Each structure stands twice: as structure tokens, then as C-alpha cells.
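Field: COMPLEX_INPUT
Field: COMPONENT_COUNT = two
Field: RESIDUE_TOTAL = 574
Field: MODE = joint
Values follow.
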Amino acid sequence: MIWNEKIECASRDEMAAIQGERLKQTVQRIYHNIPSYRAKMQEIGMLPGDVRSIDDLKKLPFTNKTDLRDNYPFGMFTVPMSEIVRVHASSGTTGKPTVVGYTRNDLNMWADVVTRTLCMAGVSRNDIVQVAYGYGLFTGGLGMHYGTENLGATVIPISGGNTQKQIQLMQDFGTSVIACTPSYALFLSEVMSDMGIDPADLNLRVGIFGAEPWSESMRKEIEAKLKLKAIDIYGLSEVIGPGVSCECEHQVGMHINEDHFVPEIINPDTFEAVEPGEVGELVFSTVTKEGIPILRYRTRDLTRLIYDKCECGRTLVRMEKCKGRSDDMLIIRGVNVFPSQIETVLLEMSETEPHYLLMVEREGTLDVLKLMVEVQEQFFSDEIRQLEGLKKKIKHNIQSLLGISVDVKLVEPKTIERTAGKAKRVIDNRKI
Amino acid sequence: MIIKQVSVFLENKSGRLNEVTKILGEAGVNISAFTIADTSDFGILRMIVSAPDKACATLKQNGFSVQTTDVVLAKTPNKAGSLSKLLAILQQEEVFIEYMYAFSMADEGAVTVIRPTRVEYCVEMLQKHQTELMRADELYRL
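Field: COMPLEX_OUTPUT
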């Protein structure tokens, strides 16, 4: 079923008209409420009135993740706090998180776009949806939750973790849809086999997987192991959360809810638009958000757009699975990790520049983060228990900042390769 | 009476120990005794050498993390029961030990390297009980 046929099957001209009208209002709102963005527009001599249609979008300045950090926590909100009914946060590039705020209308719109994505995935009000994304500051859990309620399906708000209980409820409640990260889906299948449970005996038929990159081969593996249809969903909190885009049952790219989130693909080096269909960096402008509307937000995700009408009948533009990042962000078990965050932790523990290397491995089905730290003079102690204590402290401080565990290994100075004087910080050995 | 022990951070991988001994050999630094404290992925090499400052400087130049630590070297006769006597003194005077190791010399008996939590106090107590301690200048003879 198509939740909002008028919008999801609109012609390109109709969509452009809707986007243009909404963009004009958003530019006005931001120009008059966000001094930092107004300054950017003034710098290039642009006034809100210069935006007359969606074609003028490309003239506007970009917004970066650092803009959110510089205006931490609420400086990018365009409404008074009395209008904000909820905040979410994701990890920023250094110690401070990236905070987003939602008005009542924003939450309604968010639930509505998530409902659309559920319908794309083939979910209906007859389904029982187990939401195994984390509930809390992370947008995954609550975002899926309200979209599912809005659809009228039954939601099991179990949140992340507690794997045996997840499986028990699948059995007892007859869960038909599971929403979680793709790596957790594979982990579920492993635990099921340990528990002697055959997924074919469960009622599962659809999985909605997102919050981390995954490949077509991983899709095949999940589908074979869990006996369900694996659907890719995309979102980021700076834009709204889950529900920015999602695959339909044909699994040929994720339909973007572009009447709310207008996509562009740029060359990350020249900032110019790429040729239609070419791969580049995905940029989003929200055109209906009230709490924290954002213009030309650089997601750093690399992908391409497909404008052909889909077999499902929708005309909403599709984005391919993300092919990588144009920055050094890693996504580990659904958590965004920037090497600069690790650096911040190490810097707090010593006064000189730390040398470290982050390695990501996929062990079985789960991503493991390993951190090698060079034991420079300032870290070295003659006593084993001091060095073991140092390892524990690094592990603890990273865990409390990022919420994920890391294996710390102490190595000798100068063992981490330097390229052109600068150390290489990340090795990603995952085959995804 | 306080001796500088040289401590080096080493990763558990092949060839690292020989790298250290090669560097010290070429620098003309003699190693009188050493021990390795190890964990699953790293170790600390502790050495009594003929020229601790030179050893440190040379190893640092070669990129090692190095540190000197104050230790006490107690001489005991090379015969049964003498280590026990030494330990009894330490216990009686409540000298707390981080770690210790020993080496023996053919004629001059055995030497126990002690890293106490309080170095001066340890020296004072051992002298009180007439334990013979090795002086820094004696080490050059070893």
C-alpha cells in the first residue's frame, strides 16, 4: 500500500513546485532566526527573496556538522524552547554531541514519513513490529516507534540488546517485523541457532535494517538466515532520524521523502552538482521542519540518485545504498565514531599529541573496534599495574563518551605508520 | 646506595628484546641483570646496566619508551637460607615491595634487586640490619 499516493506518486513538476514553495518559507525562517546562517548568506550577497524556486537551492550556502557543534546545544533552533517538545542527540566530531529539537508538528511529520517507509517495506496495520533500535537520545527507537503506531500496527518497544528476550518475544508474540541494525540481525540469527530455534518456525517476514552501512551480500545472508525480506532504511538525526528514505519491496534503492527532505548530490571537492546519476556526496535540505530546519546539510555519505519511476508506482527519487563516506566517520554497531573523538579522550589523559590507530574488524557478525596507542614517555610507567590501569582508563573514557566498548592495545613508540609526517588513523577491515 | 634501573616498554613481538641488547652492546653498555614483566600484549624490560644514563639516552634516540627507576641491590651470601633472612628483615620493618628479582655472581654471592614503594626507607632499614648493599660505583666492576 502507498500511504500518501498524491505525494509519493507525484510528477517531477508537481514535486518541484511543492519543494520550491516550501523552500522559500524555510529560507525566510532560517534567515531571520539563525544568525550564523544569515551571515553565510550575506557573505555571498544573498537575500531570502533570491530563492524563487527549487532550482535556486544550489545557490545557498552549505551547513556542516561543525555548524551544529558551534551552536551547541540549541543555537540552530528557529523556534523558542516552549515550542520544542523533544530533543535527540547523536555523537559530534569531538566531545560535544549534535543536538536536534522537534516541535509537535515535526514529530507528527516524522511519524508520517516513517509510516510511509513502513508501507514501502510492505508493513501493514496487521503486523506486529518489534523495534530493537535503541530508545533514548538515539533517534532510531522512538522514530520507528511512533511511525509504527501511526500506521496502526502493533509495536513491541523492546529497544536494543537483551537478545534472548528479543527471541523469546518473537516466539511468544508472533513478531512479523523486526527493526534493528543489520549486524544485530545477523547476531540474532546466531543466537537463535545457539538456542536451537529455527527462524522458519517464527512469524518473521520483514526486517527493516538501518543505522549502519551494509552490502548486498549481507542482505542475502540475512534473508537466508532469518527467512524474511530485508529492507534498507536510511536516516540521520540532523535531517530527522529514520524515515528520510527507505526501500520498497522491489529493493532497488531507497525512496526519499523528498517533499520534506530535498536531496542533492555534489562533488565533495568542488561543491558543484555532479552529472545526473553520478556518485557524489549526498546533501539534504529540510523544507518543512520547524524546530531545526537545515539547508544543504552535508551528510558525507556517498551515493547516487535515481529519478526513474519505480515498479512500485512511486515517483519519489531513489538513492542507492551508501557507498562510503567523504570524511573519516566510522559507523560501529550503529554508533557514529570520529577518530577526533578518540583523540580528544587521549589528549585529556596526556599533554602531548597521542599517536594511535583505530582498527575496525568484523568478528563473526559484530563489529569490533580496536585501538592501538603508542606508549610515549608521558604514558610509560615501570609498573605493570600502572600500564594495565592506563589501558582500563582509556577503555572506560571512550566507553563513557561513545557508548561502545573498545579493545585497547599498548604499542611501542613509532610503530604506527606515519604517512608524510601525519599518522594514518583508521584501518577499516570490514568487508561491507 | 640507590641504583638506577633502566625500564623499557616492549611489545610482545619477535626481535624486540634483541633490538635493545644490540643497541646497548653497540653503545658499550654492559647488562648485569635483567628481567621481563609480561602481559598478553606488552612487557616491561628491567635492567641493571653499567651506564644507566647512557643506556636511556641511546634507547630514547632509537625510539624506545624508557624510564629509570630507583632500586636497591642487596648482597647476600650464596648459600641456603640467606634470601629468607633478607625477606624476614623486609617483612619485620614493613618495607613494601613492588617487585624484585635476583642474580648471582660466582665469587661474591647473590644480588637481589628490590623495588620498594619507599626507596630511602628500605635502604635505611637494610643498613640498620647490616645488610650489605651494592654501591653504584661497584656496578662498573661487574
